[in-house]
Amino acid sequence: MNRPLKVAVAGLVLLFPALILVSTGVLGIERPDALVHPVLVMGGLFLAFMLNAWSVLRVRFGQDGDNLVGTISVRVRGSAMNVMALVGSCLLFATIAAYLFVENFQPR
Fold this sequence. Notes:
The protein is of the alpha+beta class.
């Protein structure tokens, strides 16, 4: 098994607690307290994003005269599973953030 595939599988495993939290909330099922600890959910999302962003994104900085130039490029050489884990972590984070906003929003 090559390195990008190992990273993608690790990222998908790290997304499991967040996926359980979101799916049990949507389906109205009792959630298991052991799997939805905030450190596991948010830490797993962050680690899955960082591991797979490392495989898919490339950040470069350079000097152009007196200016510092930075570029972010998407590299397609990573596997499709890396992109899937990266997009999954972003979608799960957006879902949790939207829930937190809607649950705590109070019009003034």
